[in-house]
Amino acid sequence: MALGRRGVYDGVIEGMHQHWKHREIVKVITMQKKFSQVMYTAKRVEAESGGILVSVVKLKEGHAIIVYRGKNYKRPKSATLNLLNKREALSRSLEIQRLGVIAENEEENCGADNIGEERIGFGGICID
Asked: Where are the transmembrane segments (predicted)?
């Protein structure tokens, strides 16, 4: 299974439970770069799905999160009550992306011109 830009939402967990009908292990592929983000996602997948995190493997591009369903698996009736739906997850993803771009722009705009000069940025305004 591939984990898209929306992250962990109800469709991902439902897909995992569908996969677990016939197999014991599911591999979730994520393209996140930072290992801390990958571990956060892995723990979230583990908690929301009710499975057991086996390992996180570095791939050529991205990471693979391997989750075991457990012995004597029975599919839960409502597994995704506290997760976002597809539309809400996309809007959350876009908002996180916007915040990341704003933070990068503030760092670039408020960079020091000279070595001895320091600048402090507040909401896009740089103070010498």
From this structure: none
